[in-house]
Structure formats: structure tokens, C-alpha cells
Fold this protein.
Amino acid sequence: MATAHSRSAARLMMSPAVILLLGWMIVPLSMTIYFSFLRYNLLSPGTEAWTGFDNYRYFLTDPAFFDALGNTLVLVLGVLVITVIGGILLGLLLDQPFFGQGIVRILVIAPFFVMPTVSALVWKNMFMNPVNGLFAYLATAVGLEPFDFLSHAPLASIILIVSWQWLPFATLILLTALQSLDQEQLEAAEMDGAGPVNRFTFIMLPHLGRAITVVILIQTIFLLSVFAEILVTTNGGPGTATTNLTYLVYVQSLLQFDVGGGSAGGIVAVILANIVAIFLMRMIGKNLDA
Amino acid sequence: MARAVSNRRKLIVTLIAWTIGLAIFFPILWTFLTSFKTEAEAIASPPSLFLFDWTTENYAEVQSRSNYSLHFANSVIISLGSTLLGLLIAIPAAWSMAFVPGKHTKDILMWMLSTKMLPPVGVLIPIYLMFRDTGLLDTRMGLVLVLTLINLPIIVWMLYTYFKEIPVDILEAARMDGATLWSEIIYVLTPMAVPGIASTLLLNVILAWNEAFWTLNLTAAKAAPLTAFIASYSSPEGLFYAKLSAASTMAIAPILILGWFSQKQLVRGLTFGAVK
């Protein structure tokens, strides 16, 4: 029973949030678009000039861009595969009855609450360091050469660190979805002679489909922007081995002070993220009607 | 009908689950233990798990060397400040969307969500330059503003999904009994909304505490919260594992505890209500 009066009151209550977000979205983004068409370096102020699509041409033909694009894809896909498969397995495990369920659940989700700089530095130094790390000790203990993770498999190491942070998220969401599964349906299937594999493939997996999609899409949004983990472990190196798109734009704009080139890179990142976002929005939009 | 589970099976699952759980938790446990070792013991080979001389000197050292409490205070102020400011802006908005939905409410909600998908590097340069020109670089104020804006969509969404669950019938009953808009808000809605607001607050404090893009790019010595302070250990001098561990333990402990309380809200908040 909304009256005209309450409607205008509602609009008034909504406006601060809408206006602020609109400003946050439009003002800096249009500045980035504008900068991306300028030759603009912070080290030589006053020499800004219109260059059309030059920045895009340089950015998109820079070999570092293709490295960064490839690294971004490998990082996102690698973490997704590990966390989704790991999350399903862990979700299935934690859904079983066992002693101390609550405590194990708490242990499993803990890494999600660790700030990125802490987890990256702890893994880098205390585990992956080839001299003093725990992995090096374990390797020598069984007679192997210690492996220098961040020099010889830098991207894989970062995938491992980021997966450790995101596995809890995937597990928690998939576990929540599993727990909403109708037990009677499972029992009925069991009585009809469906084995564990069939029960998983034909009942659980379809039920999980939606949660898996949500996990993939939301993680992708965050994983496209992985930054701190790279900054404190490898600085994007060796070479460009661990430079993702986010890190490349950061290097270009805040380390090389190339505002024009960095802005063009930023816009490329925005476009890529939008492609993912469209799918996510559709998913969530559907849920809103339900 | 409860499923009959054999004790044997339950024991096996218990064993596997605890092993995996402890393995996943191990880096945190190891950090905690290392923080009580001396620097020499921290890199000792073979490493010892519990049998070492426990010392708290790292905690004192971290504070005296680097003014740890300043960065801790920055984290508290920035995460709480941005969350409270966000709630102040979001509560009226979510409220009106949930109770007086218009034709475009759904579009507005979806659009708000879409702002969250904007990658931060897309706006890094303008924000950096604006902050530089207005003197907001390396200030708590500046970070509070940015974090408020980046978390505002999540706050609005979470509140909206909670407010949606408050039955409208109760409001109408109150109105029939002659409640004014204000008494309706204070006596009827607020008590039912408090749990939702509390969970929103909790999750957003966690997100803001751990935010590590803007905090790293927009702060230096003065306003750096713990995320940025810990990052300074990426180029350390001398032995530092025990000190890194002490600094890390203090940085993650409060949020770990808050996080464990907010498990359920986490799912809901981070999936924008798509999974409950």
C-alpha cells in the first residue's frame, strides 16, 4: 500500500546511495577514458597532448600485455579449477556426519579471513623459501633437492597461495548448497539402487549447479584483480612471469608514471571484467524474481 | 528418517576431515607458533612444533620498532569508519527499496551491483590524482571514503535481502493500530532489522579490514592500515620470520574471530543473496 507520499519519501531515502555510486562510477571512469586518449606522463607535466588511439595501440601490441593477459587467464582458471573441485570434495566431506564437525568447519574457512598480504608473505617466506622454508626442510628430510618455488614456478606458486585463500569460500558456499538438498530424494534414489557415483552425478551435481556458477562468477570478479599477493611476493617477475593485467596497469601508471598508457590498460581491464559481469548479473537477476 | 550411519564409517570420516582441516589451517597455526619463537628458532632445522622456549619478545619488538599500534588503530578506524558511514547511507536506501518498491527498484539494485564489478585499476589513476591534488593521499579520511564507496553495493544488497524478509503484514497491522511512520520505524521495524544490520556490519568490517588494493596504493607511512604495514615485510632486513609472524598474528586474530561468528552471513553477503 504505497502512497504517492511514501513513494517520494522512498526516492529521497534512496538518493544519497544512488548519487554517490553514480559519481563513483562516472567521474573517475570518464577521466580514465579521457586520459587513455592523451599522451600524459606525470614526470613531464604540461606536455599532455591528444594522441587518439596511440595508447591503446602501444598497450595492445606490447608483448607484456600478452604475457599479462595469459597470466591473468592462467591465474583465474587455475584457481577456479582448484577451488571448485576442491570445494565440491570438501563440501561433500563436511556434509557427512563426523565428530567435531563445527570445529573442522571453522578450521577450513579460516584462510578466507587472512589478509592477502599476510597470507602471501607467510607462504613466501615460511613455506616456499628454498633455504629456510618448511617445504625445503621436508624436501631435504626425504632426500630431495629443495625447490625454489617463486623463482622456478612463480605463477604456480601464486596460484597455490590464492587458491588457499579462496578454497574456504567455495567450500562454504557449496556446503551451504549441499545442506539444502532434500535428503528424502537421496534416500529414494538409494532405494531405487543408485550408487554413490550416480547419486552424485544425477542428484547432487544438478542441485549444486547454481551454487557452482555463483562461485565461479564471483571468484572471477575478485581473481581478475589479484594484486597484493603479486606485489609482496614476486613484484610481477621474474620478467613478466607473474604480471597480471591489474599489476601491469599498476606498474605502468604508478611506477612508470605513464598515465595515458596506464589508463588505456585500465579500460581494457574494465572491458574484460564487463564480459564476466554480464553473466553474473543475469544469474543474480533471475534469482531476484524467484 | 535419520540415516543410519555405522560408527566405523563415522570414525573414518572424522579422521579424514580432521586431517584435511588441520592441513588447511596449518599455515595459520604455524604463523601463530612462530610468533613465540626467537628468530634463530624460527628458521631452525629441524623445526620444532611446540617444544621451544616460548617468548613474547617479538610482540614487544614489533611495537617498538615500527609503531604497530598506529597501524592497528588505522585498520580499526578505516574498517569501522567506512562500514558505519556505509550503513548510514545504505539503511535508508535498502529500507525504501524493500518496503516501497517502485518500477525501477530492481534495475537500481542490479546497477548498484554492477558498480562492484568495475575493476579497481579502471579508476586507479583518477582517484590517485584526485587524492594527490586534494591532499587525501595517505589519510584515513581518504581511505574511509574509498572503502565506503567500494563496499556500498554489498551493504545495500545485504540489508535489502534482510529487510525483504520482514513481513509487510506486521507493518500494516501497526498502521491499522494508528502507528505513525516514526513509531512504526522505531518500535516495529528496527527490532526486526537489528540482526540483519549487525551481520552486515560484521561482514563489511571484515572486508574492509582485509582490503589490499586501495590501502596499498593510497597510503604511505601515516595512514597505512595493517595490510599495508605487513607488506613492508616484503623487503626486510636480517632475520624476520618471528617478527613477521607476530605482526601477522595480531593483524589476523581479531578478524579471524569475527569471521567465525559471521560464517552464515558471509555466504549470503558475498553471493548477494543468490545462495542462502
User: Anything to note?
Assistant: Chain B has a mean pLDDT of 87. Residues 99 and 167 of chain B are 10 Å apart (CA to CA).
